[in-house]
Amino acid sequence: MKKILFLVIFMFSFIKTNACSCQIPKPIVEFESAKYVFEGNVISKVYAKDSLIYTVTFDITKHYKKSDSPKTLEFKFKSEGKYTGEWTSCDWNVNKNEKWLVYAYYWNDKLTFGYYCSNSKPIEKTGISKSEQKVLNNANSFEIDRYTFTSLDGQFTNAKPKVDLDSILRKYRDKNYGEEYNENRVDIVIDIDKNGNLISANLTSKEHMSIENNEIIDSIYNLNKPKNIEIRTTKTNFEKDILKIVKSLIAWDKTFIERTKTSVRIRKFLQFYKKTNEIKVFY
């Protein structure tokens, strides 16, 4: 019985600490998407009459992002599980007298911020790391066009080609090209400029996927310049055909930092799978 109880507690703890794990955007990317980035002290926390919502007010001690600079800001959040009866392992809360670093943005016309999947956090005990402080001190001078981003850097819109790629793949299926392929998967890496123009494409390799193989442009923002995309040549018919198709896709949607109108140069990884009656692509 003790062993079972220990196992349950262990599993519960594991779920609690891992259920909300996600890729936190690099601070400079979240800075770009935020309306306000500030340090502030929580001077009040007021629950609604039904206790389902609470409002916190920040006294702002330092603004990092150049814009209007309000002295105070209010945010509304769902109350803790003990009030709503809907506790989950993703719950988090803000309390009076805490000091926070906040990356605030508009969602459904309301100003808010996150905790999981965000760089917003209480800092009264830990402070701000030296690396993030360096980003915050220099972020207003950030030159975004110097960089090629990947999904590891932050949250971006998922750009797709302007033409119907599925219809092109169907033509290959209808001509029975798929019967000639021995392998079932081809991985492609592409670079697209900020206007949605295809720059280059080739087969994905470990050199493309490894951060260690990237060239550091600027240690301030912890962003990398991916090395040249041309690394290896095709070896199979499936690779040749898929790469030919991808290189013909010269026009793509622009890629934006989420919640912004800021388009960026992006490196994308595509996966093509041969199935019984079709070739599927995943972006």
Explain what this protein looks like in three dimensions.
The protein is of the alpha+beta class. 22% of the residues lie in helices and 30% in strands. It contains 7 helices and 14 strands. The strands form 3 sheets. Strands 1, 2, 3, 4, 5 and 6 form a 6-stranded antiparallel sheet that branches. Strands 7, 8, 9, 12, 13 and 14 form a 6-stranded mixed sheet that branches. A two-stranded antiparallel ribbon has the order 10-11. It is elongated and about 65 Å long. It starts with a helix and ends with a strand.
Q: Taking Cα atoms only, what radius of gyration do you get, to the nearest Å?
A: 24 Å
Largest sheet: 6 strands, antiparallel
What is the percentage of strand-forming residues? 25-35%
Question: What string, H for helix and E for strand, traces the elements in order?
Answer: HHEEEHEEEHEHEEHEEHEEE
Shape: elongated
- The structure class reads alpha+beta
Cα end-to-end separation: 47 Å
Low-pLDDT segments, ≥5 res: 1-18
Count of individual beta strands: 14
Question: What oligomeric arrangement do these chains adopt?
Answer: single chain
Number of helices: 7
Helical residue percent band? 10-25%
Mean pLDDT across all residues, rounded? 86
